[in-house]
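Page 42, continued from yesterday. The earlier attempt failed because a stray header line got pasted into the input along with the sequence. Redoing it now with the clean sequence only.
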Amino acid sequence: VGTATSGTHTRFNNCYTLGTFQGLLYENQWEMGAAHTRGKYELYVNYYANDPNAVEIFSHWNTLMGDPAVRVWTGFPTALATNYPATLPVGATSTVVTVSESGIPSTGARVCLLKGTETFCSGLTDAAGQVELPVNAATAGTMKLTVTKYNHQPVLADIAVTAPNLFVGYQSSTVD
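This time it went through. Structure tokens are written below.
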């Protein structure tokens, strides 16, 4: 966040800063854009009734530099352990990913799979730390795996999609 002028005042700067940290630390507004807006809201709540011009000016002067969707970590990020298949056969329709932290299943981790235009899906892990995602592995190549969770180090990995020599498939059936 940058203030775009030299004519600022401590009371307005402090009010904006308090609102920003209120959002980040106490209201779970971990995206920088949401926290920035919370800071502007704090200016409005405290000063709009008596000094609406200052609220407007300071709302313009305090500018977010960068992506508003960037999450801010509020603690030391911990590692996630991820169990996933190293390879998937062409034709696979789903895969299971298991996530844990310190040997305990990790609930609520976001797992995303991406392979060109064939597959883009994501889901949250359950109480067992697992999520089963639908995939469309129509061709050989590399599927990207991304696992994220707030205040945890992201996991980035590749899953090889390979064409096996033999396919097992349904051919026909007869009812007697």
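Notes: Residues 10-26 form the longest helix (17 residues).
Reminder to self: strip header lines before submitting.
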